Amino acid sequence: MSDLRLEWISKRAYAIWEEAGRPHGRDAEHWEQAAGERDEFERMALASAKKPLIEISKKAQPKKAETAKAKKKADAGAEKPVAAKAVAKAKSAKGAANSKPV
Fold first, then answer.
1. Contact 33/55 with Cβ under 8 angstroms?
2. Are 32 and 40 in contact (CB under 8 A)?
3. pTM
4. Residue 80 contacts by C-beta under 8 Å, 6 or more apart in sequence?
5. Given a cut of 90, is residue 40 above it in pLDDT?
6. DSSP 70
7. Which pairs from 76-85 meet CB under 8 Å and 24+ separation?
8. Angle, in degrees to the nearest 10, between helices 27-50 and 3-19
9. Is the model's pLDDT at 14 over the cut of 80?
10. DSSP 9-52
11. Percent of the chain with pLDDT strictly greater than 90
């Protein structure tokens, strides 16, 4: 047995002994009860690890994400918002007014 398992059983057997009113001479009974509880705990943990907690239907599963290249291409082809166009126009007009002919 591993040290962690023995330690758990020992602590649980002690707790069982205290709950029973600290009777004399029943240590083997408490140890067996604690060992049985640990075995059941391990069985349940293994059983739940083998199967998923919930099943997800095919409809609920996420679709494959777009690739990064396709996303960049879509963003590049997107038109600038109207407000951004207006600001760009104003800046270019201001720049043209301030420029001196050579």
1. no
2. no
3. 0.48
4. 88
5. yes
6. H
7. none
8. 120
9. yes
10. HHHHHHHHHHHTT--TT-HHHHHHHHHHHHHHHHHHHHHHHHS-
11. 40
Could you report the per-residue pLDDT of 63-92, keeping only the tens digit for each? 666 555 666 666 665 555 556 566 666 666
Q: What pLDDT, on the 0 to 100 scale, is given for residue 58?
A: 73
Spell out the SS3 assignment of 73-100.
HHHHHCCCCHHHHHHHHHHHHHHHHHCC
Structure tokens, 47: 């059983």
CA distance 69 to 71: 5
83: left (phi over 0), alpha (psi -120 to 50) or beta: alpha
Higher pLDDT, 6 or 102: 6
Length of the chain counted residue by residue? 102
25 pLDDT exceeds 70? yes
Amino acid symbol at 79: E
Alpha carbon 27 to its chain's center: 42
